[in-house]
Amino acid sequence: xxxxxxxxxxxxxxxxxxxxxxxxxxxxxxxxxxxxxxxxxxxxxxxxxxxxxxxxxxxxxxxxxxxxxxxxxxxxxxxxxxxxxxxxxxxxxxxxxxxxxxxxxxxxxxxxxxxxxxxxxxxxxxxxxxxxxxxxxxxxxxxxxxxxxxxxxxxxxxxxxxxxxxxxxxxxxxxxxxxxxxxxxxxxxxxxxxxxxxxxxxxxxxxxxxxxxxxxxxxxxxxxxxxxxxxxxxxxxxxxxxxxxxxxxxxxxxxxxxxxxxxxxxxxxxxxxxxxxxxxxxxxxxxxxxxxxxxxxxxxxxxxxxxxxxxxxxxxxxxxxxxxxxxxxxxxxxxxxxxxxxxxxxxxxxxxxxxxxxxxxxxxxxxxxxxxxxxxxxxxxxxxxxxxxxxxxxxxxxxxxxxxxxxxxxxxxxxxxxxxxxxxxxxxxxxxxxxxxxxxxxxxxxxxxxxxxxxxxxxxxxxxxxxxxxxxxxxxxxxxxxxxxxxxxxxxxxxxxxxxxxxxxxxxxxxxxxxxxxxxxxxxxxxxxxxxxx
Length: 534
Known about the structure:
Layout: H1 3-17, H2 47-50, E1 51-54, H3 62-65, E2 69-73, H4 76-79, H5 88-102, E3 107-112, E4 125-128, E5 140-146, E6 152-159, E7 165-173, H6 186-201, E8 209-212, H7 227-244, E9 248-250, E10 254-255, H8 260-269, E11 278-282, H9 287-298, E12 305-312, H10 319-332, E13 342-347, E14 350-351, E15 365-366, E16 369-370, H11 372-383, E17 390-391, E18 396-398, E19 411-417, E20 420-428, E21 454-459, E22 467-474, E23 479-481, E24 487-488, E25 495-500, H12 508-515, E26 519-528
Parallel strand pairs: 1-2, 1-13, 2-3, 3-8, 8-9, 10-11, 11-12, 12-13, 14-15
Antiparallel strand pairs: 4-5, 5-6, 6-7, 15-16, 17-19, 18-21, 19-20, 20-26, 21-25, 22-23, 22-26, 24-25
Helix pairs in contact: 6-7, 10-11
């Protein structure tokens, strides 16, 4: 079974079974006891608000400072296994899970998907990636023909060098939940959406956001049909109902197998911008957020929220450290003026601690233990814990670094939260040296008394009297006290912090950074005395 097929199976089967698995005392929660829970209030951006996960459970240390969102499928087929049958108990059990997350001051994002077996489109159809596809990406066409025995012949065509369609392969299918729903079953889909949203919008659940489908695209493995059909039969009807019931619409995770231009063109074609509250993509770099931000602004939607409800699923142990601070810096610099405007959902929460297991070393947990990804998220959550997170501007470095949107480049992002200044440093290996920054300046060993390569940070607005402690923290959470190494600048206004770039030999971070596919990351934390303005 290929990766897409396994991923599809994991998403669907786990979604149908998870509500019966139990998470601690979730099944014992009385809805009546939840009505007095205070509503979510916003006191400014925070890392925890920014950080979520997929297919998790509301237990463990990550929910203290690092996570506040989880995302699970709420499948149509589980609620309505037959056209004339509705499983209300399944839906109410799902509601209990909402309350279990509420007890952790966290929220659950329901994804309304996939097709019910009795609602598939069983007619003949032909579809491709769409006429707006970029060159060399729109070269696949599918033809589905029903057979007398109830199965379907599926023929795939590829475009040759002359631009002509040539048959590539042929197979037989019995259909699946990713097939388009038939036109005559749109009303049934609408009924499912309405019943789910109506229940979860009410107290004590008060669910605000609802995602429609997951990764609808002919190349994703989660939508085996035309994108216009998806918009007309699935997205637009569901979005209208969610809005009517006072909810907010999260687009169903535009996947990286499609271009962002295609996504924007699809929304334009169906005039869908007004009915979407959150533009959502999967497995895109940070530049995707800038693209969507600019596209929304051009269309009069400057304040549109942008999420990634799936990111990562990589065995690169440096991914979180290199990517998350960049996304966070970009978000704080782009009108983060209300709750839930920017969120990343790590995919996925856990996998078995077995090299043969699907997702091994790609999730937050390996078995019962935090993986390198989980420990990296936990480290950032602890460093940036607190409300009113904001950018801290006056930090310079030697060799010089600045915030970069390109994850391949060396970069520096500085944040202020409560009585801390946190600086994320990313060093890329852009030539034959393994620890050189971008630009012409190599790492200087003169900053450190023992000759170890280092980087010098300068904070012009901070004095030694205002500092309680300065630490270097690696992506695994190991800390090194740098307080005694502080140096005043020449005029006495400001501090210089010499920082070694190598992680401790005994820290897991050294191995993780050596295996990182792009830049090495570490953090510098200044703990300030109370009431210091920064």
